[in-house]
Design a protein that fits this description.
It is a single chain. This protein is of the alpha/beta class. Among the domains are: 87-226, Rossmann fold; 501-624, ANL, C-terminal domain (GMP Synthetase, Chain A, domain 3), CATH 3.30.300.30. The chain contains 18 helices and 31 strands. Helix 1 crosses helix 2, helix 4 (87-103) packs across helix 5 (120-132) and helix 6 (145-155) crosses helix 7. Bound molecules: coenzyme A (COA) and adenosine monophosphate. Adenosine monophosphate binds next to strand 25 and strand 26.
Length: 633
């Protein structure tokens, strides 16, 4: 069947569509119905089913005779090592770790934070939680202790599983001191921490609280898979919202299994035994869906890559991995390709490798710019598929579903809505706009299986942030348009979220940190265009009247403050001191207008501006730090 038929088939009978997709999953008790609308506009899926995620991602493949196949390949150019783990080995390792967690009291529904770099043990920890029905929350390694502390207090984990260190090019990231500091800062204290000691750094354990990964598992009974109900939370993943308090996106178990399994074939054209690689990090949603769960549920081989697109050791690393492990479908962020393109503009390094296994390249996480897509098309000679989704949805809202049908690629568009998503572009009043007209992108409720049913501990916030502006719809926070052929174009965020190197960051959170600096009276952070990272944050600081400290010193302190409190991943390096901020008469800071000035774009003088002269001052301050950038040819 072709895409259109499948999409229309879903629309005509969503219940039938998802129950058919559910047949790809092993159930302890199969669902008798798909959607549960009892709490509408909050929806659940497959609530009457009993299932276990780890069984579907690991054990069932061993039972089916795939035990000898590689489940995970760890490829680490940073440590110069490659290691494979078969499904049978993975089953043993996960069952043992789960047994150890159970022996220390971890049960269904308990939360476990995982704070680990790109090593197979991170996936094993996720799967061990899934085996017990414990709810994991993975925290990205590039966040500072304070961010980890916020997550500890929000999801109140009984245990934390961490590694002694992460490895960035030329720098060891000392995870353990960050973890200790986070626990000290948090009000909630975990019962115990399990520390995986890496060869590169052995961390000091705190007696009575910390236990080493291997010691922890010594002599324990392996655990079997614990059945959970379909709506049981599989995990919580925190993502940036408009404030400093991150949103805990909840993922329900059964929908997650059904949807990811469906996408592996329909979107990524992956069957059991194929090799799939998503070059992201387990700390992000791409890592959850497509490094860990999706490929394993499908019985494919997944690659855990500990390296960077460039510098580990060169811009040919990605191609080496694809060649050596015979990757069939490859998923990365446009920023990674821009980094490679910058070092190897002609794609000369690509010719050093045999990429015959590669059938398609998938891009997501940020807008894919036409130059980068064309570069990849020219040099890789495979379909380059942009697809659009979010932490909240867990899988693609719009894509070109190669496993169903290769639709014509329109550069600049992540193609068309996937079954499950009735995507509409709305005006401010919530009315659908004609094709070609810009508006807020919303999805008609209910969202499909695998998407968030709510936010952890914050149902009101869930309703306010996503369901209130356009009743009957989920508000994506993205703006764009649909063309006559139903292709979507994602143009910008409608909130204060920016996208830095494919990482989603909140400018509001940065402003909260900056306003704690003793010299800062008021501030604003915006995203400005960056050739490599897509966007980078830029801060405007208004200093207290009495402050007479040199501006460069205050700026340096502010840069350090964000690094200390949010983390290096915020990439906050640019700021300027201004006398005042442009505001509307009601006091709202005109961030979007400042962003346009910084990017050298045309802007309309906002009708409600309090004092238009301030925009001139802002432009002067920006010029002093080199903005707008001179565009390279
Ligand atoms: N643990 C600790 N620190 C981390 C980290 C991690 N897991 N990941 C990144 N950082 C740090 C980096 O070391 C860097 O610190 P620095 O300021 O001391 O140099 C900072 O966070 C910013 O990192 P990054 O965004 O990776 O920028 P970069 O300049 O080091 O590299 C790219 C640029 C384009 C190569 C890199 O951003 C990249 O590979 N992007 C792909 C992004 C991606 O896959 N996103 C997934 C979303 S789908
Ligand atoms: P995250 O939750 O970190 O995955 O970030 C989701 C946001 O990234 C989306 O809401 C978009 O703003 C942006 N995004 C993701 N994929 C794309 C894409 N293919 N094109 C444009 N923007 C994207």
């Amino acid at each position: 069947m072709a895409y259109r038929e499948i999409y229309d088939g879903w629309k005509a009978d969503p219940e039938g569509f998802w129950l058919a997709a559910a047949r790809g999953i092993d159930w302890i008790q199969a669902p008798t119905r798909a959607l549960n609308p009892d709490q509408a506009p909050l929806y659940e899926w497959f609530t009457d089913a009993q299932v276990n995620t780890c069984w579907n991602a690991v054990d069932r493949h061993v039972e089916a005779g795939r035990g000898g196949q590689l489940a995970i390949i760890h490829d680490s150019p940073i440590t110069h090592s490659t290691k494979g783990i078969t499904y049978a080995e993975l089953q043993q390792r996960v069952a043992l770790l789960a047994g150890a967690l159970r022996a220390k009291g971890i049960q269904k529904g308990d939360r476990v934070i995982i704070y680990m770099p790109m090593i197979p043990q991170a996936l094993e920890a996720m799967l061990a939680c899934a085996r017990l029905g414990a709810i994991h929350s993975v925290v990205f390694g590039g966040f500072a202790a304070q961010e980890l502390a916020v997550r500890i207090d929000d999801c109140t984990p009984k245990a934390i599983i961490a590694a002694s260190c992460g490895l960035e090019p030329g720098r060891v990231v000392h995870y353990k001191p960050l973890l200790d500091k986070a626990i000290e800062l948090a009000d909630h204290k975990p019962d115990f921490c399990v520390i995986f000691q890496r060869e590169e750094e052995v961390a000091k354990l705190i007696e009575g609280r910390d236990v080493a990964w291997h010691t922890f598992q010594y002599g324990v009974e392996p655990a079997e898979c614990v059945p959970v109900s379909g709506d049981h939370p599989a995990y919580i993943l925190y993502t940036s919202g408009t404030t400093g308090q991150p949103k805990g996106v909840v993922r329900a178990t059964a929908g997650h299994l059904v949807a990811l399994n469906w996408t592996m074939k329909a979107i990524y054209n992956i069957d059991a035994g194929d090799v799939f690689w998503a070059a992201s990090d387990v700390g992000w949603v791409v890592g959850h869906s497509y490094i860990c769960y999706g490929p394993l549920i499908a019985g494919a081989t997944t690659i855990v890559f500990e390296g960077k697109p460039v510098g580990t050791p060169d811009a040919g690393t990605f191609w080496r991995v694809i060649q050596n492990h015979k990757v069939k479908s490859f998923f990365t962020a446009p920023t990674a390709l821009r980094a490679i393109k910058r070092e190897d503009p002609e794609g000369a390094l690509i010719d050093d490798y045999n990429l015959r296994s590669l059938q398609a390249l998938y891009l997501a996480g940020e807008r894919a710019d036409p130059d980068t897509i064309r570069w990849a098309q020219r040099n890789l000679r495979v379909p380059v598929i942009d697809h659009w989704w979010q932490t909240e949805t867990g899988w693609a809202i719009a894509a070109n579903p190669l496993g169903i049908e290769e639709l014509p690629v329109k550069i600049g568009s992540p193609s068309v809505a996937m079954p499950g998503y009735d995507v509409q572009v709305l005006d401010e009043g919530g009315h659908p706009v004609p094709a070609g007209t810009l508006g807020a992108i919303a999805v008609k409720l209910p969202l499909p299986p695998g998407t968030l049913p709510t936010l952890w501990n914050a149902e009101d916030r869930f309703r306010k942030a996503y369901l209130t502006q356009f009743p009957g719809y989920y508000e994506t926070g993205d703006a764009g348009y649909v063309d006559e052929d139903g292709y979507l174009y994602i143009m910008a965020r409608t909130d204060d979220v920016i996208n830095v190197a494919g990482h989603r960051l909140s400018t509001g959170a940065m402003e909260e940190v900056l306003s704690n600096h003793p010299d800062v009276a008021e501030c604003a952070v915006i995203g400005v265009a960056d050739e490599l990272k897509g966007q980078v944050p830029l801060g405007f600081l208004c200093l207290n009247k009495g402050s007479n400290r040199p501006h460069d010193v205050v700026i340096r302190e502010c840069v350090n403050l964000i690094r200390d409190q949010i983390g290096p991943v915020a990439a906050f390096k640019l700021a300027c001191v201004v006398d005042r901020l442009p505001k509307t008469r009601s006091g709202k800071i005109l961030r979007a207008t400042m962003g346009k000035i910084a990017d050298g774009l045309d802007y309309k003088m906002p009708a409600t501006i309090d004092d238009p002269a301030i925009l001139g001052e802002i432009a002067d301050s920006l010029r002093a730090i080199g903005y707008p950038l001179q565009k390279s040819a």
